[in-house]
Backbone:
């Protein structure tokens, strides 16, 4: 086993810990986003162009996912930190890498489930300590312990996956017939739909659903960038708010 | 407000500290049955110690904040601010404010604010920053990829602002806000924005076309996709999302099952050369 | 007279009956739409390409017409079933065929007026039968009798027009000076306006008229397909409905 | 509802039959003075026979439904459903429901529903299907022309659904619907959609340009159309439609006269080389 | 001094009077608009193409200015009637001419301030005359006197500027370093912003501000002409009015 | 209304004359302290002479109309029409209508109408006409430049119409109009249109880009403008306008100062090669 592989695997393990420990509410998750992971691994391996390309492509699949109430539909960092290094190493193209990432993203969300289950014990421990007037235990249970748990739960498997996967994956990829590969590729383009449907399901009051359709077809018919829709959407939302406020004052 | 300032025990530094503990630990100890109760408690700890020198009061206060809690952490830190102001008041006039009242307010606010925050912060701000960075990265711009950091940066400061706001508004303002129906209108407005964003993101990032077609004698082959595009472009992805949405409406949000279903369906359709 | 002409004329006569007898509420009218007639005559005469082209061009003039309260501003099938076969036979181009169709569309609407007038007798007959407790007469008067009337009224003239018109039309067309031909052509482009104005007049509450202007200029400025406007229009209509419902509940 | 089901005399088959007679015969006997009264009566005949075994009652019922009636047939078949449910109830409790009541309900509903149906079915669904087929036909796609059949197909099933809906809702629901103002709001919403569609169709299918122009010394010839396009594209057709609309507002909807006027004007303008 | 210069200067002086005397509420201001001035000077000097180009470019800077309550942020005609003749004479290009115009536009607005201040005396005089029952003095004070004042105040300086400026300006322009010239040019593109911000400040109720943003980004994202926005804006405004009226009736 | 027509002293010619004096002199004598009071008075003079043959009454009337007045002249001429109708009525029934009432009505209307007129006439109609003419002139079309005259032409006739309208409506109609809240809704509607227009004009006519950029080793130079365009096109001009707007909100509308500031800033930024 070459040191390059080890080094990258170590980085990926640690980085997976960093981006799943949730240390820093909006920060932790962001650090594990495929586009950033792609850039970092690109720098580390000296394959910046490839890293950006694969990371960016992968990002498209995960950028719309939201986690209401602690549901993690798919783990972007698990996908990124396994699929990108393998792709960089084996020279997979961006499309195939996206396909490869899918199962790891799903496996990653399983780790979250485990973490959220075990974490319960720390809350219970904190509660008991407070009962015993051992007040300092609160912060300890809220930080150090769950972080250690996360390290074991996430860093280790990603490290191992990085070491074991390449050969496995390579032979697997060779074994998959072209049509199935294409099928998985199609699935890659379709999967973000789940995230969006979920978000609509979560956010969406029935009476506002037409705004989803409007947003969708503005992009389809006018080829406006997402930011444009965000601007117009903000204006419409503000107008709704202001005019309703005005009405309720009268 | 004015008459109380001379009695203020909570300093700006306390608020800043409380917010930081919240920002950094918020989800670290997240668990299925209690979600953010532990991190909420931890974030208030230092301030509570200051307010309740008596160990029994302090203990009671900590227990109070170990109750179930969950909200969106950025916008939601307004609740931390309010709680601080309430606890401060309670520590001075213990009879005026009951612990139940504080709990009620927290749990009353956490739901609607989670809706607002999930929509604005995670459903709008985050994908915008990510899309920006991704577009740049895909055009081979290394710096661009680091633009993702705009999101945590903005998130941190929005949260800080909300926390301070909550403290200075206190419970009265919030009470009025809810009564006046303003909260509902804000949620509605966020819903509008969020749904438009999801629509736009769906159109940009979900892709599905069919390769199915047939050939009549003496004619060019007819591609189903061309016909669909004639009806309306983007029809298939739209139908797919609508399908998933209505499936969830009926059967609940089984992410895993739907995901598996889609992958299998894709492979099967690919086998029959339909996609 | 060649058999080809006779055959086509027979088809046109029967088809005119099919599409003006109103047997099948949304079906009958559709069967007589120029685009479909063009396709069918194309198949029959073996000139599919020409048939589609002429039928489609003609359709543009009639596709917006609605018939509130039984007003038939112009009869698309009369226009199609005379103009298209003539054009296919004489090799007229699509533009000239559209021009040619105009008067037949208008004459056709006269037939409708006659039919609607005579139909009265059947309702009266049915009423009298019920008085005499001859209950079965109702359906008979509601179906067979008016259909026979329609056959005589519409199939026959269209059949004759198909047989007599070609020579007549050809000499007429040769007689019309170029500028007048151009004028009729211009009229062809303008005539759909009447249908739309009529529809607006019928549908349109004053306070919603700006939506007509919006629909018009969305297409003008953004070159969006009609379907796009239908989508956005549906969204706006639903939002109006939902938000007004919400208001009225509060 | 629940307590009546055991007494139901009208079966699903009856509803289906009534609807079909309506769908196929609706406009066959349309006449200027009574419009759809005969076809309405015919469509209810079989069910009425079943409900009123007594010839006198049956006769009365038939006469009731030979009264003036006119509506849009697709959405309007909801009225047939309601009528069936009313007649069924009347046949069981003749004193509770008078014939006048049934007539009143029918005539009360037919107007607004005609407005809704003409807008949705004939003003929106039909031109969309036709435009779709036409676009395809014009690009030489034979199959495309047959897409017009989407319209009758959809129309048939929408009508069937409405008829069943009407029967199951019965008169109470409808009464509430009208009282609550919901009907008006539905009409308004349809009006919005319909007007936008007419605008879009006008922009797509009305064409008028002028060839008028003049030439100053030492300059390129100036075309009026270019100036108009500079002001706003699509100005002439828009002005034309507005003109016709306001003419109708003032003088009534004389289709024939307007048509003749336009043809003559076109030829005259063509003679002077203005169009 | 050549007669051509004198003639143009005389025209400019008189024209400045015409367009700042406010004789004709919507007329006077319009006559001084750069685009028209450019055309007129183009005709006079025989340089129509250049005149149109410079006048049009200059217009872009002034076409959005409104004068609520008698505030004149910048005087378009002063700018036009000095900068355009100089540019035509010295062969300056449109960009540089725009730059050159800026200071004259500002100086021109100073003249307005002076005029509005001195005009007070006429109102006072009219008042006194009415007191003395000298009724005819009203119209005189409302017309002749202020017009004479305007003539002296505005025609004379513009005439002089036209005679003196060319040489001065030429040497000035030569003296300005390229980067500063570029800076002034940039300022030229930015200055209209003040007019628009002022208009928004004047018109704009807080709750409708999103409409400004909508108008802005419709043009940015869809590249629609201003007229298009005017059409859609009118529709939206009318809908607001109609629907609010309807609500208040209910 | 009807019963008064036989007593009418003001003829159509009087109204036309009054309007013309107003249109031509409106702003000629504009001054800082009284604005349009003199021209208002002058415009009413002839009619007032006719209504008040008695010199004292006439004098009083003139004095009444020398009070402070300012409005937008085009839409605002509706006030002149109303005033004429009021003065006519007063001249007939001096006790029914007091001079104060007339003044109150004038000053009550002039503000809101100024807002409407400035928005519609100067903020919308004028820039549209100018933009039209400018576009044509810039494509070397001489006639096009004279299209600016559309604006005064339209303005003249709109004003004439408003003046006649004001006279025929009289004060009652106007009173109702204000009470009903209609005026506020009209202003709101104008505000919507005006703001959209200003937005569109800003986007079309304010231009600002940055030339700033930097170069990393081994990479193409990175231009700040490209990044900004990636975020959203038109960002800089928008930020600039927003900046000026908020500056005005805080410090008042100091046109001169802002102008100077911008020029200086532009030159400085140009020096550092940033713009
Ligand atoms: O839904 C509210 C909230 O729930 C959980 O705590 C997490 O998933 C957060 O990200 C989310 O914002
Ligand atoms: O207007 C209602 C209705 O009237 C008549 O019956 C026909 O013209 C129908 O097509 C129409 O829907
Ligand atoms: O603001 C109202 C009005 O004020 C002044 O009289 C002038 O500036 C007018 O142009 C303006 O319309």
Residues:
């Amino acid at each position: 086993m070459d040191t390059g592989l080890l080094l990258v695997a170590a980085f990926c393990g640690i980085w997976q810990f960093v981006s799943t420990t949730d240390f820093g509410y909006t920060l932790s998750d962001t650090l594990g986003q495929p586009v950033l992971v792609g850039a970092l691994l690109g720098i580390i391996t000296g394959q910046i162009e490839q890293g950006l390309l694969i990371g960016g492509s992968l990002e498209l699949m995960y950028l719309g996912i939201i986690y209401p109430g602690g549901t993690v539909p798919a783990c972007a960092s698990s996908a990124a930190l396994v699929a990108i290094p393998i792709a960089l190493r084996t020279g997979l193209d961006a499309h195939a890498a996206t396909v490869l990432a899918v199962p790891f993203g799903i496996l990653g969300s399983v780790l979250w489930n485990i973490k959220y289950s075990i974490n319960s014990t720390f809350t219970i421990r904190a509660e008991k300590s407070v009962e015993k007037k051992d007040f300092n235990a609160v912060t300890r249970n809220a930080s150090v312990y769950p972080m250690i748990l996360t390290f074991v739960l996430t860093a280790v498997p990603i490290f191992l996956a990085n070491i074991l996967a390449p050969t496995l994956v390579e032979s697997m990829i060779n074994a998959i017939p072209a049509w199935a590969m294409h099928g998985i590729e199609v699935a890659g383009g379709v999967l973000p739909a789940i995230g969006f449907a979920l978000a609509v399901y979560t956010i969406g009051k029935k009476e506002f659903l037409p705004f989803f359709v409007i947003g969708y077809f503005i992009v389809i018919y006018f080829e406006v960038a997402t930011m444009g829709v965000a601007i117009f959407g903000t204006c419409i939302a503000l107008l709704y708010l202001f005019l309703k406020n005005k009405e309720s004052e009268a | 407000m004015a008459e109380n300032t001379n009695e203020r025990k909570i300093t700006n530094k306390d608020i800043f500290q409380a917010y930081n503990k919240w920002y950094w630990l918020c989800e670290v100890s997240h668990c299925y049955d209690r979600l953010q109760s532990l991190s909420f408690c931890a974030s208030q700890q230092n301030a509570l110690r200051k307010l309740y020198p008596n160990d029994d009061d302090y203990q009671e206060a900590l227990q109070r904040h170990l109750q179930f809690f969950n909200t969106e952490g950025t916008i939601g830190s307004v609740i931390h601010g309010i709680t601080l102001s309430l606890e401060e008041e309670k520590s001075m006039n213990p009879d005026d404010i009951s612990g139940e009242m504080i709990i009620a307010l927290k749990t009353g606010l956490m739901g609607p604010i989670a809706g607002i925050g999930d929509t604005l912060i995670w459903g709008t701000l985050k994908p915008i920053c990510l899309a920006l960075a991704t577009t740049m990265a895909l055009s081979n711009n290394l710096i661009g990829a680091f633009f993702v950091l705009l999101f945590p940066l903005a998130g941190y400061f929005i949260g800080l602002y909300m926390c301070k706001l909550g403290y200075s508004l206190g419970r009265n303002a919030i009470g009025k806000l809810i009564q006046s129906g303003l909260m509902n209108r804000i949620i509605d407005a966020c819903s509008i924005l969020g749904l438009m964003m999801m629509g736009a993101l769906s159109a940009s990032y979900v892709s599905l076309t069919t390769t199915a077609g047939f050939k009549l004698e003496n004619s060019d082959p007819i591609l189903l996709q061309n016909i669909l595009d004639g009806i309306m472009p983007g029809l298939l992805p739209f139908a797919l999302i609508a399908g998933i949405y209505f499936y969830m409406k009926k059967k609940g949000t089984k992410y895993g099952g739907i995901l598996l279903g889609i992958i299998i369906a894709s492979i099967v359709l690919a086998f029959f050369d339909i996609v």
